[in-house]
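Write out this protein's structure.
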Amino acid sequence: MQDERNQSGAAPDSPVVVKDLSLGYGREPILQHVNIEVAPGEIVVIAGGSGCGKSTLLKGMIGLLTPLEGRVWLDGVEISQADEKTLNTVRRRIGVAFQGGALYGSMTLAENVDLVLADAVRLDKKTRNTLVRLKLALVDLEGYEEYLPSEISGGMQKRAGLARAMALDPTILFFDEPSAGLDPITSAELDELILKLNKAMGTSMVVVTHELNSIYTIAHRVVMLDKSEKGVIAVGSPTDLRDKSNDPRVTNFFHRKPRN
């Protein structure tokens, strides 16, 4: 599929563009008419209550779920109806940190990261080993190259998954519930790491989470979904949505108030 950067109407400097997107796992849509644009270097959080479609939207944005309607561009290339060859090419320009790290348990951390490099680039083993060490050091895992996932903590597993997601120097990083299952201190450390990487590398980031502390810490902008609306009900900075929204669904979420 050709690069539709000029024909699509999407801004060339927008790494992620979602237009009028509807998603579902059958004929009944879970999300309808979603529109999102992520600026270069921006951290956008996809937030909302359980069952609102956050993970479904993430799958649609990275090409794991074919839209019922609408279009998605990543780095200027439309992936909405892309063939597998085009998807594989685009996926080499993005990174995805899945919930739980999604590491191969029988492989060391170094082998997990190297698996991505070996599959995508023509480099000798020595050069790849150097890159692997650099990526692990970037997430504060220097010296843990030969550890198995079962030999390190949950927070370290998340960081190792992030190192693997960054193996090919992606222009866009996607995170699926990065703080899930972590204690508050480890979660805060991961938030700080995300901010450090964003500032140092200028990588655009899309983060799916419902953790308020993380949202307030890392989000430049929040896109809030609602299950009953099957789509977006608010967009803005975390503090603006908390303090200025007139929608009780939004203010209840940001003030941790139970639904009536």
